[in-house]
């Protein structure tokens, strides 16, 4: 392959070469190179190109803690992507969002709940993010020895997690310890294990150097340390920021030269055409252009774009697989696994239909399609909101009363009305009902990316962590009715739900659960399905306990470094059944440590447990116990099973101030369905099993 690509490059003029280094690549007919637009999106389904399965948003998928599911979803997305691509090629549609190169997954660390793009990620933990990112990439790229099914791209490299409003000029400062311990591990796993085809640089600077032209990140770490041999792309228009936002260059020619010299092969944007002038001025070499172009064309070749007709098996995928019944069933399964049960006072849930005559469903997200899909979304053939899911589930057996209740963040729904213009309606339907289901939160129009979101609530990032507007007031009215109140919080991030935790009867984190999320949530509420989701992020008690948003130090951030007690901890989630852990043991070996533990379903319902292994290095400066292994186990009521897992050397490494990995003298290992913190113990009424270990790796 490389020989043919080198021959192809040797026949190109400089202008032709550079025409292939931007996202809207031109055709070079004499060489058999077709026009191609590289830009496509697939965070949770094929996006922005018509009908496709809209899976739960990435943060929701993270709550499954399920590597196999993420691979299955990635494979399904790439199947639809190939089917749509084959159809589009047939009809000559080669424009934006119609290719096979996808800018996903987003493996940035969700270090601060205010960040609007956090729901694109797999949460706050490097280990969980790495496992799910690798699984998703493997699903997307397939296992064919010759061809990629689609090409994934891990983004945004590196140290990128808000704030959105200053991302084009922001300079992130991090210690070597935080860089190696938090910000780089997921990218490293995506490269070394996932064999991701591309890596995208971030908008911001890191220690003064723009990430899309950062020699240390793109050459010294990515290529020399990790052995990455794929292509590096800029984020959209990020190279313009060099001279317009970061002011590290004075014009587009110098920005193009700086990016290329420092490791950026490809420009999602409009700056790289200036490389023609940069070559003329001696600022970049043709050899470096050829090197970048070889990587770019290799990706196209691996996707089968230069192959003989009939050779690529993925060319045979038919459009009929798109939005098929199989895809819908997988989507519903994923949505059921995503939701997290945070509170269930006196086992109110699941609801018993035989005991209900009337249900009140209230709130701005109850019948809001935008609360199903998050951002970077496709278009579903049918959306099932929570209201519709409940209505469909109970049919004519139970009457369902509905009120939007309030606007997301304004004081009134109708702008000509007075404040709280649905208060009478809320009071009445709560009085008439046996139970109240309040569907509150945010949606992708309120939290998301700069440019995609914007209103008088905020510009993508959250200005505060409380439920906005008068949503809280509506919940208080519902509570005063004396009826049981169930809150379904549909957000892509953590909110401060202190009053809700203290006063409401049940709390569910519903995320942005995908196009069929309402059906899945209804099945969970009525007990046809069981909750198994766990929080991939920490729910804090207040925004005031957080460091400044612009402070990228991990001190007092996330479960790994926080000193205070969480409202709802990372790794926490209830089930309709109970799980008991026993007979745990640690067996050190030469190159790994085996952990054995028995898990028993002691409840009366079948359920799925997420077995979590945490490791704490006995060093004063080391983080809190960190998640280092996960395994899903399905157990029938009364069933028990011995689980065996292996921890490699990396699970025990902590990093010193210089960013060097260290093996400590001793470790505490914890096994359970939660993290070993006091708040999880209080909420679940159980403790993790504690084991001690000394390890020596040869």
List the main descriptive attributes of the protein structure presented here:
TIM Barrel, 4-stranded antiparallel beta sheet, alpha/beta, single chain, 23 strands, Rossmann fold, 698 residues, Immunoglobulin-like
Q: Overview of this structure, please?
A:
The protein is an alpha/beta fold. It has 21 helices and 23 strands. β12, α17 (471-480) and β13 form a beta-alpha-beta unit. α1 packs across α12 and α5 (126-141) runs parallel beside α7. The chain is globular, with a radius of gyration of 26 Å.
Q: Biggest sheet, in brief? A: 6 strands, mixed
Number of helices: 21
The CATH class name of the largest domain reads Alpha Beta
How far apart are the termini? 39 Å
Mean pLDDT rating: 96
Strand content: 15-25%
Helix content: 25-40%
CATH superfamily of the largest domain: Glycoside hydrolase, family 3, N-terminal domain
Q: Give the uncertain stretches in residue-range form.
A: none
User: How many distinct domains?
Assistant: 3
Layout of secondary structure:
Elements: H1 2-10, H2 14-19, E1 24-25, E2 36-37, H3 58-62, H4 67-90, H5 126-141, E3 153-157, E4 171-172, H6 176-183, H7 185-192, E5 198-201, E6 205-206, E7 209-210, H8 215-225, E8 231-233, H9 241-244, H10 252-261, H11 275-280, H12 286-302, H13 325-338, E9 340-344, E10 358-362, H14 370-373, H15 386-394, E11 399-403, H16 423-432, E12 435-441, H17 471-480, E13 485-490, H18 498-503, E14 506-509, H19 517-525, H20 558-561, E15 579-588, E16 592-601, E17 607-617, E18 626-635, E19 640-648, E20 653-655, E21 661-663, E22 667-672, H21 678-684, E23 689-693
Parallel strand pairs: 3-5, 4-6, 5-8, 10-11, 10-12, 12-13, 13-14
Antiparallel strand pairs: 1-2, 6-7, 9-14, 15-16, 16-19, 17-18, 17-22, 20-21, 22-23
Helix pairs in contact: 1-12, 4-5, 5-7, 13-19, 15-19
């Amino acid at each position: 392959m490389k020989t043919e690509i080198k021959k192809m490059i040797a026949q190109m003029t400089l202008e032709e070469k550079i025409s292939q280094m931007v996202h809207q690549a031109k055709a070079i007919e004499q060489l058999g190179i077709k026009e191609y637009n590289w830009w496509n999106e697939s965070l949770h389904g094929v996006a922005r190109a018509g009908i496709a399965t809209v899976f739960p948003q990435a943060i929701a998928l993270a709550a499954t803690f399920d590597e196999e599911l993420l691979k299955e979803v990635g494979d399904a997305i790439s199947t639809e992507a190939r089917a749509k691509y084959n159809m589009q090629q047939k009809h000559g549609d080669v424009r934006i969002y119609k290719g096979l190169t996808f800018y996903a997954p987003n493996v940035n660390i969700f270090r601060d709940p205010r960040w609007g793009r956090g729901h694109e990620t797999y949460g706050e933990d490097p280990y969980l993010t790495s496992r799910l990112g690798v699984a998703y990439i493997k699903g997307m790229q397939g296992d064919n020895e010759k061809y990629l099914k689609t090409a994934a791209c891990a983004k945004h490299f590196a140290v990128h997690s808000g704030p959105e409003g200053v991302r084009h000029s922001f300079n992130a400062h991090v210690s070597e310890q935080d860089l190696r311990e938090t910000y780089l591990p997921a990218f490293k796993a995506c490269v070394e294990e996932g064999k991701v085809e591309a890596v995208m640089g971030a908008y911001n600077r890191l220690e003064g150097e723009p990430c899309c032209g950062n020699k240390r990140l793109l050459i010294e770490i990515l290529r020399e340390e990790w052995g990455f041999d794929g292509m590096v792309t800029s984020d959209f228009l990020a190279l313009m920021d060099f001279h317009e936002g970061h002011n590290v260059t004075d014009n587009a020619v110098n920005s193009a030269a700086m990016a290329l010299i420092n490791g950026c092969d490809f420009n999602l944007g409009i700056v790289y055409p200036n490389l023609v002038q940069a070559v003329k001025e001696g600022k970049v070499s043709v050899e470096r252009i050829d090197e970048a172009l070889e990587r770019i064309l290799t990706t196209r070749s691996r996707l089968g774009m230069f192959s003989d007709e009939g050779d690529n098996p993925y060319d045979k995928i038919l459009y009929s697989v798109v939005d098929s019944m199989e895809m819908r069933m997988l989507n519903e399964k994923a949505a059921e696994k995503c939701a997290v049960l945070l509170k269930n006072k006196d086992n109110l849930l699941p609801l018993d239909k035989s005991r209900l005559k009337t249900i009140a469903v209230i709130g701005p997200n109850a019948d809001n399609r935008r609360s199903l899909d998050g951002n970077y979304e496709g278009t579903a053939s049918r959306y099932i909101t929570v209201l519709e899911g409940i209505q469909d589930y109970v049919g004519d057996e139970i009457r369902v009363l509905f009120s939007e209740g309030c606007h997301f963040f304004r004081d009134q729904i109708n702008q000509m009305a007075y404040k709280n213009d649905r208060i009478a309606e809320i009071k009445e339907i709560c009085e008439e009902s046996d139970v109240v289901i309040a569907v509150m939160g945010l949606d992708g129009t309120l939290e998301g990316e700069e440019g995609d979101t914007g209103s008088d609530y905020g510009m993508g990032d959250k200005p505060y962590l409380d439920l906005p507007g008068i949503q809280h007031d509506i919940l208080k009215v519902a509570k005063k009715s004396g009826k049981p109140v169930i809150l379904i919080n549909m957000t892509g991030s953590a909110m401060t739900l202190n009053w809700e935790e203290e006063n409401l009867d049940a709390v569910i984190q519903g995320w942005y659960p995908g196009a069929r999320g309402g059906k899945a949530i209804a099945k969970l509420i009525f007990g046809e399905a069981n909750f198994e989701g766990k929080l991939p992020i920490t729910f804090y008690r207040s925004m005031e306990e957080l460091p400044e948003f612009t402070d990228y130090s991990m001190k007092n951030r996330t479960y790994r470094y926080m000193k205070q007690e969480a409202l709802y901890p990372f790794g926490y989630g209830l089930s309709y059944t109970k799980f008991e852990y026993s007979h745990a043991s640690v067996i050190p070996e030469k190159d790994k440590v085996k952990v054995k533990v028995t898990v028993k379903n002691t409840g009366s319902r079948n359920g799925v447990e997420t077995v979590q292994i945490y490791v704490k290095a006995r060093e004063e400066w080391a983080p809190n116990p960190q998640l280092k292994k996960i395994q899903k186990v399905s157990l029938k009521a009364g069933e028990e099973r011995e689980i065996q897992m292996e921890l490699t050397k990396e699970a025990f490494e902590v990093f010193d101030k210089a960013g060097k990995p260290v093996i400590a003298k001793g470790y505490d290992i914890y096994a359970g369905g939660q993290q070993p913190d006091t708040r999880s113990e209080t909420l679940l009424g159980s403790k993790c099993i504690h084991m001690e270990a000394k390890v020596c790796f040869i």
